[in-house]
């Protein structure tokens, strides 16, 4: 084996290993440590969900109706943790960059309420629009889909 090729390859491999195995205890801003999430699933398929949080929304879909192109509209999706342990919303993502969510980054205690605010910009949009908002939390199931709809009208549309 030629040492000229072996040594650089080894250095690159070791560098990648050290970078990928960096297990710093620092938590990224806004993230909640994973060790406080309770997952009751077992290999047998039997699980005890009685102690889990329950994410209960007042509504999961909102229709803005007709809006003018360029207008920004928003909705507050109200929810309640009707379960028996702290609710942790890990992530809220949208199907389009024109839809921007904001959500609580701290645990929601049992019985407490909160909101997920979703703003929709109709700039560069036209016609019927339907956007999905995916909420990932420590619930079973762990995802909930919210939806917004609107009919985006140009100034000349009737």
How would you describe what is shown here?
This protein has a four-stranded antiparallel sheet, with no helix packed on it. It has a four-stranded mixed sheet with strand order 2-8-7-4, with no helix packed on it. The longest helix is centred in the N-terminal third of the chain and has 18 residues, at 3-20. It is built from one helix and eight strands. The protein is mainly beta and 158 residues long. The chain has a domain at 53-153: Immunoglobulins (Immunoglobulin-like), CATH 2.60.40.10.
Q: What can be said about this structure in brief?
A:
The protein is mainly beta. It is 11% helix and 39% strand.
Give the topology.
Layout: H1 3-20, E1 55-57, E2 61-68, E3 72-81, E4 89-94, E5 99-102, E6 113-121, E7 127-137, E8 143-153
Parallel strand pairs: 2-8
Antiparallel strand pairs: 1-3, 3-6, 4-7, 5-6, 7-8
Topology, number of strands: 8
CATH class of the domain at 53-153: Mainly Beta
Order of helices and strands: HEEEEEEEE
Shape: elongated
- Whole-number mean pLDDT: 80
Radius of gyration: 22 Å
CATH topology call of the domain at 53-153: Immunoglobulin-like
Which structural category fits the helices and strands? mainly beta
Q: What share of residues is helical?
A: 10-25%
Label the CATH architecture of the domain at 53-153.
Sandwich
Identify the CATH homologous superfamily of the domain at 53-153: Immunoglobulins
Main sheet strand line-up: 1-3-6-5
């Amino acid at each position: 084996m030629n040492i000229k090729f072996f040594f650089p390859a080894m250095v690159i491999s070791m560098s990648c290993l050290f970078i990928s195995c960096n297990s710093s205890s620092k938590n990224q801003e806004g993230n909640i440590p994973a060790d406080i999430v309770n997952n009751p699933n077992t290999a047998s398929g039997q699980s005890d969900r009685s102690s889990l949080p329950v994410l209960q929304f007042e509504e999961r879909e909102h229709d803005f109706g007709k809006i003018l192109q360029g207008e920004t509209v928003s909705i507050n999706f109200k929810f309640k943790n009707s379960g028996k342990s702290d609710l942790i919303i890990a992530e809220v993502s949208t199907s389009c960059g024109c839809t921007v969510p904001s959500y609580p980054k701290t645990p929601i205690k049992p019985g407490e309420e909160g909101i997920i605010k979703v703003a929709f910009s109709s700039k560069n949009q036209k016609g019927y629009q339907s956007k999905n908002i995916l909420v990932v939390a420590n619930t079973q199931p762990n995802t909930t889909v919210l939806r917004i709809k609107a009919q985006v009208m140009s100034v000349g549309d009737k």
